[in-house]
Amino acid sequence: MPIIKYPRATEPLWHEWDRKAQKRGLRHTVYAANGDQYTGEWLDNLKHGKGTQIWKRTGAIYSGDWKFGKRDGHGSYSIPDPITKEYKKVYTGWWKNDKKCGYGVTFYLSGERYEGEWSRGLRSGWGRMYYRDGSMYEGQWLEDRPSGQGMLRLPNENRYEGGWKDGKKHGPGKFFYLNTGQLLEGIWAEDTPKSGTLIDFGRDKAPAPTQYPIPKV
Questions:
Q1: How do residues 163-187 score in pLDDT, each as one tens digit?
Q2: How many angstroms from the chain centroid is the CA of residue 122?
Q3: pTM, whole model, 2 decimals?
Q4: What is the DSSP secondary-structure string of 28-83?
């Protein structure tokens, strides 16, 4: 009976070449075809671990943690000033799946600043926002807008404490007119007080009290 010999299955050479080309561990700077560059750790040809990425088109820099090719963990993101070309930090904090997630601080080009929680790249959770005009909001956020309970302090120290929805005063709240020594307590809807009670509050210490006190009911 004749003996039939079957050829041994051989793996294509490119499989071996591909395994050898896979980047693992710490590497020197690797340049992409578009000019972007990355220096840091790799796993199975993906950025994984600690590393720094520079985007050629914008000049932006991210330095921090990576996970399977995406920013994930703690890191900072900076961009060059269009005039001085010096790098300015835009965000430092936590990331997940390439988006801001967890606690972090953002510095806006307008000079404003946000300190607080993020979710999927949007301000969500508890946070404090410092606005350009000197106002400050502290409280709950949802999808980049004040929503829930929070306090807005104005440059003249007047403040609102109460409910918010979609970035506007909404629900029960109190507005302290500290400049005149009055307090409005009531219900707001889309930034407008719908009903409430106005009383004197610290009128004796107010810098510009009303001419006549509000009669007590």
A1: 999 999 999 999 999 888 889 999 9
A2: 6
A3: 0.81
A4: EEEE-TTS-EEEEEEETTEEEEEEEEE-TTT--EEEEEEETTEEEEEEEEEEE-TT
